[in-house]
Amino acid sequence: MGVRVAVAGASGYAGGELLRLIAGHPGLDLVAATGDSSAGRAVTDLHPHLATLAGVPLRPTAPEEFADAELVFLALPHGHSAALAAALPAGVKVVDLGADHRLVDPADWHRYYPGEHAGRWTYGLPELPGQRAAIAAADRVAATGCYVVASTLPLAPLIAAGVADPDDVVVVAASGTSGAGRSPKPHLLGSEVLNDVSAYKVGTHQHTPEIKQATGARSLSFTPLLAPMPRGILATVTARPTGTAGAGEVRQVLAEAYADEPFVSLLPDGTWPHTAATFGSNGCQLQITIDADAGRIVAVSAIDNLGKGAAGQAVQCANLMLGLPETAGLTANGVAP
Amino acid sequence: MGVRVAVAGASGYAGGELLRLIAGHPGLDLVAATGDSSAGRAVTDLHPHLATLAGVPLRPTAPEEFADAELVFLALPHGHSAALAAALPAGVKVVDLGADHRLVDPADWHRYYPGEHAGRWTYGLPELPGQRAAIAAADRVAATGCYVVASTLPLAPLIAAGVADPDDVVVVAASGTSGAGRSPKPHLLGSEVLNDVSAYKVGTHQHTPEIKQATGARSLSFTPLLAPMPRGILATVTARPTGTAGAGEVRQVLAEAYADEPFVSLLPDGTWPHTAATFGSNGCQLQITIDADAGRIVAVSAIDNLGKGAAGQAVQCANLMLGLPETAGLTANGVAP
Amino acid sequence: MGVRVAVAGASGYAGGELLRLIAGHPGLDLVAATGDSSAGRAVTDLHPHLATLAGVPLRPTAPEEFADAELVFLALPHGHSAALAAALPAGVKVVDLGADHRLVDPADWHRYYPGEHAGRWTYGLPELPGQRAAIAAADRVAATGCYVVASTLPLAPLIAAGVADPDDVVVVAASGTSGAGRSPKPHLLGSEVLNDVSAYKVGTHQHTPEIKQATGARSLSFTPLLAPMPRGILATVTARPTGTAGAGEVRQVLAEAYADEPFVSLLPDGTWPHTAATFGSNGCQLQITIDADAGRIVAVSAIDNLGKGAAGQAVQCANLMLGLPETAGLTANGVAP
Amino acid sequence: MGVRVAVAGASGYAGGELLRLIAGHPGLDLVAATGDSSAGRAVTDLHPHLATLAGVPLRPTAPEEFADAELVFLALPHGHSAALAAALPAGVKVVDLGADHRLVDPADWHRYYPGEHAGRWTYGLPELPGQRAAIAAADRVAATGCYVVASTLPLAPLIAAGVADPDDVVVVAASGTSGAGRSPKPHLLGSEVLNDVSAYKVGTHQHTPEIKQATGARSLSFTPLLAPMPRGILATVTARPTGTAGAGEVRQVLAEAYADEPFVSLLPDGTWPHTAATFGSNGCQLQITIDADAGRIVAVSAIDNLGKGAAGQAVQCANLMLGLPETAGLTANGVAP
């Protein structure tokens, strides 16, 4: 008998990935999966890849559906988490995959999202200093945004160590299409995304303040790209080095930061990350160099936006909150080719 | 402590998938991974997605490398399995992913492959009647060809039940590029396969006799296609109905054949298989209908060519041979989207 | 000064391809492009690839918009062509890319389409015997369905020559996503079609009667597949040989049928068609063999579903109707890789 | 009768695109196509999409093969252009698609390429101030590198106008796989590039000095990415604004620079470039903004790496050199979807 968990908002891509991870998790039992517009439909109608859930129906997203759950994952549209969380029984732990409880500064929320700011929860990025213990002690955790994970893992240690200038950071990050969600919008059709890389929300993406908050960057130029693949984020992070640290030294900062991390791999020198290597996993690949001519540190990261960028991260947090092994039900091994 | 297993030929795609499955298997421990031309290189140099194997080197494919193994998976080029198998210590169990020991009739071997016929081993398709027990009792098992699995699971029960005519079978099956292997041939470049579907080896593919042997088809037109995706096979199998069985009755044949099978899903009526739903899994999706106007049964199957079509199948056989739960380390759930 | 042409229904993919071909055509001038739900929007808002049409707006699809046109292309949803055609000024020539006027037998129409049968127009496949002259003499032409072109070019000559049995034809054809149109349906999202091949409308596709009509097949099993590419159809057509004709003789039938055709290429023996080779073109690649063991002719064709399968075909017909060189504004050369 | 042209190095992707453009060009006649390792093979064996060249063989790359040519395109590996150019008959015009004659400073050559520096030719980017006339007057033109075009078109006018700081430029550019050439390297297999975006040659790409030379940038951090599509480059170019110019003013710089350019489109405000919109064309899409918070200009460009990035550019230069209309045989319209 595992811990009883539920997924609110199980019809989307992050919700589906949560269901997949829970189905393969040795310590979690799914007791409810909900979706408002999909209530009554079979899980496999929406997620035909989840063969082991054949016969399981989606329930409406109502508080009473979660009565049996010890922990609830919220994979709801932005702005819907607070109300549901407030209506859950006392003692139920919650991991929110939405943006509602990530931002410290309400002004950041109001600039990018509609509605009221719901207040901050413990930030669900275990690899940040101190966060692993904080998550383990929390009942409410706000899991990270996908671009934020990809940007923060390479950058935060560099700023914290004082080797990267927080005042001149440029991030260009290419995402697979599942990051744009499952609403059938014309520009997300296969006919449109095949053969195509494009930029969008240049300088205006809602993850911008969260990246700054999580990394300590004070000035950030952030350009997201859409790439013709279903999953994956490749982030190119550049910043000016401070002082005289060379390539070996900045590399050493990352090596030390992640020496004991089960999901973060600093690749051998000269080998650069590939999103395909993280497909379906909770892993993150990193590499870093200094371009001496340009006077810039260049760090590159790869994650699966639905894995370490969303559902994998959420399960990792849940494992910590529940006292399970942190890696239970997760893997750093991607599905490739 | 799990059962000690080794992989001979770990540098290719099937070998890499074996390593991935073994790394996530609760009852198997990897004791050796070998590759002739890649000996000495790191596993992660060839398979950067296998983060948990960082630091593990590939060894040469020599008999002494398998001294500690209780079971060896052979993922070698065709024609190399017999010699290595003969040189392994007595008592070592073997699962061969190559074609060497699949065919009953030496004439079939000689028509499609060079060199001597190595003789038949127990055929590794557990879902065939009687094969599950035979595999469990065997020390040497020949796992199935990828197109053969995709063709046999929908067709064999129909011929066995006498509802499909074995004398007029047409199979057209589209495969992802990993099925063509890892040798860098010009026509397999990304630039060539993107935007492209093509036919190849029309009427001459080496899996043709194996499909006939496994299904009981006496006349088979088999056309393989190459599709722009890394994994997956979608097989369209058509045959003339015999007698007066209708769509409901032929569907019932498949429903009964696979009612208790953990990896084979007959989809709800009207829902057709998608390769994406089997990506990274050991699952198979099936659907069937009768086209009354055309006078043909049309059955469609989807598998992952590296999963149920190769490494997953091999692990399923190994589980049976070792007395482990048949589903250990495997899942029917694909990684999608 | 070229011939004045207009496109009704210019917002979809076939309409966009018509605009692209007209823009590059030395003998045609675009005088109007219309789209009901898109009226008022810029052409480049819907088709950002059509840089030379910057500043051109879409007009509503109303008869008066076509007052200046000498020929109108109709790329409307099925069932809308007849009413508009009837309202056009006398003397305006019309090429319809929809299904409305293709079928001879009203029963075929009623089985697959809603609404009344609009009656048959001259069938727009110039490579069929006699059709080139018929099209040149016609004022109303019904261009072909995409799967129909891909199936008919390899098959029709074989049945006409008496070398293929019309009573046992099996076609499996894989199409790129643009064939499914531009309506934002969930199953057409990039996230869904990437990594995926699937079958759909098995035995029930609306092109089935048109293929039979155009080829002379009396029994046809037709299975369409959706492949992860934006354009292209690869059709595998198999039929039983009649009499004793061998591979060389059936090949000769196609060689003679298309010896002088500018857009149809019978490939060198042993080379099989690739959709990528027809991308963006009006070309068709063919290859054929006899699988002696299976007792089946297997012919394979590749086209661009938006080219020879839709807009290219329509322009070829228009060239004939207008007395322009048949190849004007068209090419058999694909855009590859 | 058109101008007689030849292609040296016609077996690769840039060579194939040259053949395609020449075949569709109203003013050019192909008199020779050569390829050393492919000499004797049919053009359509290497480029099956070039149906109109059926029957044309590749000749060896020897000076005498070009005796009839008035202009020769060189699409050779780096380092091979100078020797062939020197051996051509006097009076033959040459457009080199290789890097041999692009760089002003021999030190730049020696840092990135082996062998001797061959000396500079007229630089083949007509949209740069003064270059159109220089190209028209030249007998030897060095066409641009693909990443250089994508970086230079958005950036050069900004630096020239003094609105962008040349001392802090960051470019991240994603390329389709054809940019990596046609040699069958393992990492370019379809199985490897599908589902994958990766970075390579970070800070060390050989186009870096050419971008600096063409744009006037003094400090450049350049990170190329490989994306899962056959063609296309999307470049994200960021630089610090100098002075107080706002988004409207920097946009106006590009608007004026390209107001009369047939192949460069500054998109409507708020619309961002898509590589798919330039597929198969000689067009370039641009967009620009200022991210006030980050204090950075962000400009994005899209081209086809084989079009405006290679063969299209070369034909545009040839048109100028030959006194043909600059746009002859070229289009700004992409093939989409």
Describe this structure in words.
Chains A, B, C, D: GO terms for molecular function: N-acetyl-gamma-glutamyl-phosphate reductase activity; NAD binding; NADP+ binding. Chains A, B, C, D: It comes from Actinocatenispora sera. The structure is a homotetramer of 337-residue chains. The first copy, chain A, is of the alpha/beta class. Chain A folds into two domains: 3-144 and 308-322, Rossmann fold (3-Layer(aba) Sandwich), CATH 3.40.50; 147-305, 2-Layer Sandwich (Dihydrodipicolinate Reductase, domain 2). Helices cover 27% and strands 23% of the residues of chain A. Chain A is built from ten helices and 13 strands. In chain A, α3 (81-87) links the parallel β3 and β4 (93-96). The longest helix of chain A has 16 residues, at 307-322. Chains in contact: A-B, A-C, A-D, B-C, B-D, C-D. At the A-D interface, β7, β8, β9, β10 and β12 of A face β7, β8, β9, β10 and β12 of D.
Integer-rounded radius of gyration of chain A? 19 Å
Strand order of the main beta sheet of chain A, please?
Answer: 8-9-7-10-13-12-11
CATH-defined fold name of the largest domain in chain A = Dihydrodipicolinate Reductase, domain 2
Describe the global form of chain A: globular
Average pLDDT over all residues of chain A: 97
The residue fraction in helices of chain A comes out at 25-40%
Number of helices of chain A: 10
What percentage of the residues of chain A does DSSP assign to strands (E)?
A: 15-25%
The fourth-level CATH homologous superfamily of the largest domain in chain A is Dihydrodipicolinate Reductase, domain 2
Largest interface: A-D, 52 and 52 residues
Seen as an oligomer or otherwise, the chain set is homotetramer
Question: Judging by the overall fold, what is the CATH architecture of the largest domain in chain A?
Answer: 2-Layer Sandwich
Total number of β-strand segments of chain A?
13
SSE string of chain A, helices as H and strands as E: EHEHEHEHEHEHEHEHEEHEEEH
Name the poorly predicted regions of chain A: none
How many strands, which pairing sense, and closed or not: the largest β-sheet of chain A?
Answer: 7 strands, mixed
Structurally, the number of domains of chain A stands at 2
End-to-end separation of chain A? 35 Å
CATH class descriptor of the largest domain in chain A: Alpha Beta
InterPro entries (chains A, B, C, D): AGPR, AGPR_dimerisation_dom, AGPR_type-1, NAD(P)-bd_dom_sf, Semialdehyde_DH_NAD-bd
Pathway (chains A, B, C, D): Amino-acid biosynthesis; L-arginine biosynthesis; N(2)-acetyl-L-ornithine from L-glutamate: step 3/4
Domain Semialdehyde dehydrogenase NAD-binding (chains A, B, C, D): 4-136
Subcellular location (chains A, B, C, D): Cytoplasm
